[in-house]
Design brief:
The complex is a heterodimer of chains A (96) and B (489).
Chain A: H1 3-11, H2 34-45, H3 53-59, H4 63-69, H5 78-95
Helix pairs in contact in A: 1-2, 1-5, 2-5
Chain B: E1 2-3, H1 12-22, E2 27-28, H2 31-36, H3 43-49, E3 53-54, E4 61-63, H4 68-81, E5 85-88, E6 105-108, E7 115-119, E8 124-128, H5 133-142, E9 145-146, H6 159-165, H7 172-175, E10 182-188, E11 194-197, H8 209-213, E12 222-229, E13 231-232, E14 236-244, H9 247-259, E15 266-270, H10 272-278, E16 290-298, H11 300-316, E17 319-321, H12 325-332, H13 340-344, E18 348-357, H14 363-375, E19 380-385, E20 392-401, H15 406-426, H16 445-464
Helix pairs in contact in B: 1-4, 9-11, 14-15
Classes of the chains: A mainly alpha (96), B alpha+beta (489).
The complex binds flavin-adenine dinucleotide (FAD) and iron/sulfur cluster.
The site of iron/sulfur cluster has 14 residues of chain A, from helix 1 and helix 2.
Chain lengths: 96, 489
């Protein structure tokens, strides 16, 4: 599956993987969840959201995404998908 | 609808004052955080997000209180300043209850987590409202108990969200809905006062105080903890997959089972569309049947007796036992979502769950399907009955409209909802069984409760929340003139 398709599924998924966070669940913000980062990346790639330095930094914060991966209902590797689209996002910020 | 272009940053003074309460690290004021917290899982919000619009508006700021006193201080500040707030659990609501309309303080409650106490004598658990459902159940299991409330969204939701939405789990036919489990609540009122509704098994002390907050979807106060009934982990469990030649036979049989006093934990009867999708692994002769999954749990001898009794009733209704595969296939995905692929593909997918009395079933099934398909001919329509009671059942319908331009798809989606909800009330049913009202269903609240009924709810709201700061615009309640959503105008 192409990264864009993986990110689209994750962006609209209600995040059953959040239970993998266990004790740190409460300490994690929604913004660090895979579904949130997938939505942000998808919106930015589609030109619907400006790519800023803050957004790039947050899209690189993948600890929560990696922790959730073991509980992904669809067996998707969102961290890998986010890393794969990163150069395109970096090019978008460069172009601004 | 708001484009994904943020309004101005929250006022610095507000951020500073909030930081003094919850700590600077727990005030999220960046555009990115506000964007992420603007949504819940309402499909209508997803249709907009995938096209580059916010579901409704931008929250002003997000805060993450750690305890009850921080929640109280945040509400006190919001009340004094007249700033609306949105309580936020895990954002798994599907009607826009936790979505922002614009300018609110979103209060993320997930730091209020953990079980405070398990009472092994009374079989109750006192739990913080922000605790993740799957973690709550896992911790109870380790202690030898189950919470009995096992929604499909178990891992995606919080205990406070269950109570606030008046939810139902997949074992509701045995353990009840969440309102049957709530014995006590701690609620922070909009002015910051703590209301402690002490847990009691039953009382005769005037109207039910907890009932004001169960199902209030954040419009009356913030639930910070709940005392819930719990049950010992069942010693035995037996699962059944059965098939009926007719839907009428299946529904009649479920009514008979419940009215005979059997209490299956799982009951799931599927219509032809949903049965076809779940019987692929069976012999060809069994694939035309209406599939029904059942499970009984509890002490071994009672489970065996309930199963034997149910099988006899199933036989009398023209049903028969099938191979177990469909049960196991359902069980493997029971806590997953079926919708992301469809939403990603641009379809307008949604679910509508209503309650119908038995006397309105099964003709109600045909009438609700016809109502939906009159508006959207050819749309996917499937239904099942998975919360059944001695007096009625929840009809859970899945709709899928083909990809279309946003305005067209939204209009069709809204029309289907309108047709189904109106027909449901005409059948004597309730417009919502467990997903709640949020934003989308507000327009049918008067149809459900009548003008006088809605006035009573609004009057209670005005008394508790005279400044109207609690989740304005939700639950079909009138909001201040400054708060408008694109659903109701
Ligand atoms: C795939 C999927 C399956 C689902 N299956 C089920 C199901 O089987 N059964 C079911 O009942 N529901 C189901 N839902 C709906 C949803 O999960 C429930 O409504 C759930 O209870 C919401 O919990 P939450 O913590 O995510 O709440 P949120 O979505 O964050 O909030 C829901 C509403 O409650 C309010 N709220 C949240 N916490 C509090 C609090 N502590 N105090 C006051 N107000 C609060 C919010 O303001 C909002 O109005 C499903 C949803 C999805 C996406
Ligand atoms: S990682 Fe998997 S389970 Fe989690 S939100 Fe994404 S698609 Fe859903």
């Amino acid at each position: 599956m192409a990264e864009q398709d993986i990110l689209a599924i994750c962006a609209f998924c209600p995040a059953p993987c959040r239970s993998a966070l266990g004790e740190v669940h409460g300490a994690t913000t929604e913004t660090r969840q895979p579904s949130a980062l997938a939505l942000v990346a998808r919106s930015a790639l589609g030109g619907r959201m400006p790519v800023t330095a803050d957004i790039l930094a947050r899209l690189g914060d993948l600890d929560t995404v990696r922790t959730c991966q073991s509980a992904c209902s669809y067996g998707l590797d969102i961290a890998a998908a986010l890393e794969a689209v990163r150069p395109r996002l970096e090019a978008m910020i460069d172009a601004r | 609808m708001t484009e994904i272009a943020p309004p101005s940053a929250p006022p610095e003074d507000l951020v500073r004052r909030l930081a003094r309460i919850v700590g600077a690290g727990n005030v999220l004021s960046s555009d990115l955080d506000r964007f992420v917290y603007a949504r819940d899982r309402a499909p209508f919000g997803t249709y907009r997000l995938r096209e580059g619009h916010l579901p409704e508006g931008w929250p002003c700021v997000v805060v993450r209180p750690a305890d009850v006193s921080e929640v109280a201080d945040v509400l006190r500040l919001a009340c004094e300043a007249g700033i609306p707030v949105v309580p936020y659990g895990a954002g798994s609501g599907v009607l826009g209850g936790a979505a922002s309309l614009g300018g609110e303080i979103v209060i993320d409650l997930k730091r209020l987590s953990g079980i405070i106490e398990i009472d092994r004598v009374d079989h109750t658990a006192n739990v913080c409202a922000g605790m993740n459902g799957a973690l709550f159940e896992a911790e109870l299991r380790r202690a030898g108990f189950t919470c009995g409330h096992l929604p499909q969204s178990l891992a995606m939701s919080t205990v406070g969200g269950w109570v606030a939405c008046r939810g139902a789990g997949q074992a509701s036919s045995r353990y009840g809905k969440i309102e049957d489990m709530v014995l006590g609540l701690e609620v922070v009122l909009p002015d910051g006062r703590l209301l402690d509704i002490r847990p009691q098994s039953r009382r005769s002390t005037g109207p039910d105080l907890a009932g004001i907050f169960v199902g209030s979807e954040g419009t009356m106060g913030i639930i910070v903890s709940a005392t819930l009934r719990i049950w010992p982990v069942p010693a035995a469990r037996r699962n059944l997959a059965v098939g009926f030649a007719s839907l009428e036979g299946g529904l009649e049989c479920l009514r008979a089972i419940m009215q005979a006093g059997l209490r299956p934990a799982v009951v799931r009867l599927y219509d032809a569309v949903e049965s076809a999708a779940r019987t692929q692994s069976l012999d060809a002769a069994d694939r035309d049947l209406f599939l029904c999954l059942l499970s009984f749990e509890g002490p071994e001898r009672i489970v065996a007796a309930e199963e034997a009794e149910a099988l006899e009733m199933i036989g009398c209704a023209g049903g028969r036992r099938l191979a177990d595969a469909p049960f196991h296939e359902w069980e493997a995905v029971r806590y997953q979502s079926y919708s992301p692929q469809h939403q990603a593909a641009g379809r307008f997918m949604d679910t509508i769950e209503v309650t119908l009395p038995w006397h309105a079933l099964p003709q109600g099934y045909g009438r609700l399907r016809a109502a939906a398909q009159r508006v959207a001919p050819g749309a996917h329509f499937g239904a099942h009955w998975s919360h059944v009671y001695p007096d009625g059942a929840c009809q859970y319908m899945t709709l899928r409209l083909d990809p279309a331009p946003l305005a067209e798809g939204e209009a069709l989606h809204r029309s289907v909802w309108d047709a189904v909800e109106r027909e449901c009330v005409a059948l004597g049913g309730a417009i919502a069984h467990h997903h709640g009202i949020g934003l989308l269903r507000g327009r049918w609240m008067e149809l459900e409760h009548g003008a006088a009924g809605l006035d009573v709810i609004a009057a209670v709201k005005r008394t508790i929340d005279p400044r109207g700061i609690m989740n304005p615009g939700k639950l079909g309640l009138p909001a201040a003139a400054t708060v408008r959503n694109s659903i109701d105008g």
